[in-house]
Amino acid sequence: MTFRFSPAVLIGCAVVSFATAYPANASAKPTGQELYERHCSECHSMKPPPKSAPPIVGLSHFYHQAFDDREAGVRHIMEFVAKPEAKKSKLRPPAISRFGLMPAVELSECDLRTVSEWLWDSYDPKFQPPDCPPQ
Ligand code: HEC
After folding, report:
1. Best label site of 4, 42, 50, 81, fewest CB within 10 Å?
2. What is the pLDDT of residues 90-101, one digit of tens each?
3. Amino acid 22: pLDDT
4. Per the CATH hierarchy, to which homologous superfamily does domain 31-121 belong?
């Protein structure tokens, strides 16, 4: 199955979330940080030491190395989170052998975009990835 994003849905993000996901309180549209805390922080710490997955600052580092363009990077994060596959990985190979392949996280397209943009923007230019531990 291929994961597709319809431009109409992406443009309609705010409207869709107001109408369906958060009908009671339109201002409650979650931020990237809130989505991270709810759906990702169990495995991903923000910074080293890692929990059961590489820290967010490291993910952002390798995605900024792999993509010059924010939109391309964000799209790739969205596709990976929705359907992780080893061949799509932009991390160093030991990440998957050390931590295992990430399980898919089910989110609405809007939440997926919000959290993926937040991850891309969590880039810290001063961060240096640690040496890979021996396998
Ligand atoms: C159950 C644990 C778990 C949860 C929850 C989780 N992840 Fe991960 N994630 C991992 C592991 C393990 C890896 C490293 C292996 C890999 O790349 O698949 C990873 C890797 C990644 C990568 C790098 C993919 C690559 O290899 O290029 C991104 C981006 C990512 N996670 C984003 C997220 C986001 C965003 C969320 C929340 C919406 C999330 N993860 C939730 C375990 C998790």
Report:
1. 4
2. 999 999 999 999
3. 52
4. Cytochrome c-like domain (1.10.760.10)
